[in-house]
Amino acid sequence: MDPDPPLHETYKPLFANTKISSKDDDDDRRLVTVEERQLPLIDLGRLSLNEVEKEKCREEIVRAAHEWGFFQVINHGISTELLEKLREEQVRVFKQPFQNKFLSFSAGSYRWGTPAATSLRQLSWSEAFHIPMTDISSSSMEPFATKVASLAQKLAEILAEKLGQNSSFFQQSCLPSSCYLRLNRYPPCPIPLDIYGLMPHTDSDFLTILNQDQVGGLHLVKDGKWIAVKPNPEALIINIGDFFQAWSNGFYTSVEHRVVTHPTRERFSAAYFLCPTYETVIESCSQPSVYSKFSFGEYRQKVQEDVQRYGYKVGLPRFLA
Hints:
- Pfam families: 2OG-FeII_Oxy, DIOX_N.
- This protein is of the alpha+beta class.
- The chain has one domain (27-287): Jelly Rolls, CATH 2.60.120.330.
- 27% of the residues lie in helices and 21% in strands.
- It is built from eight helices and 15 strands.
- The chain has helices spanning 7-10, 12-16, 51-67, 80-95, 142-161, 169-173, 242-247, 296-310, and strands at residues 36-37, 41-43, 70-74, 110-112, 127-132, 180-186, 196-201, 207-212, 218-222, 225-229, 236-240, 257-260, 267-274, 281-282, 294-295.
- An eight-stranded mixed β-sheet has the order 2-3-11-8-13-6-5-4.
- A hairpin with a 2-residue loop joins strand 9 (218-222) and strand 10.
- The protein is globular and about 55 Å long.
- The protein starts with 6 loop residues before the first helix and ends in an 11-residue tail after the last helix.
């Protein structure tokens, strides 16, 4: 049985009704990919050295979160063996027959394509498992999940302390029941149209930790232009989410990013999302506040309404003070 979701067949009407877009009539494509670049690279091993090295490392983390919204880390405490086991588990679950995927993990965790897409710009050529951390305890991914959750808390605490804020906020509000792991697979897409693996977006969380393979395809906006992120086999990618931007009163940056498809190669990645509970209120840590305060539940509801109405997420501009 075919393991791939029926993307070609399901979205055939969109292909038939879409001409190849030009840079002149596509606002998103005006942000041209100009080059492949390395993200800021931070060696977390220095956090276990003397106080001078610790402070330099913390400063680099803060600077990258402020200036880029994205950075990569090495010596992060997650072994190559754990990452290899994660990759093996991903291949196993994604290569099983398509119909069997709906029975993996918890109900509703498997997703593919973009059900509400009315144009190719709204289509994500991908499949994913969205797995709450509470559902991972009995799986082979549990050792990785435990390590990556601890790393996320450590980074969030450093970012909070640099703003003079209480770092315990994240342990109190970001619980295993609200955080999750997402396994991604981007099938080859030989169709000669502008189709995303994942459409441009920002993350609705505090921060995301990404482990990706070496195929490439992750792009982000930097200085008004799309840049292609050069894969680093030793590094994990960290990016700031909307909630940290709001909480930091705009000091940390939640950056728009996307995944582009490859015509012949499949791509795998795994992302951990540090999310608060639905009741958690996000409020700027300084005044005057750029954003009005909101709960995660309110934010999620507004995102769902906008996606249904417009086909995309509006996000933080909805909550400007």
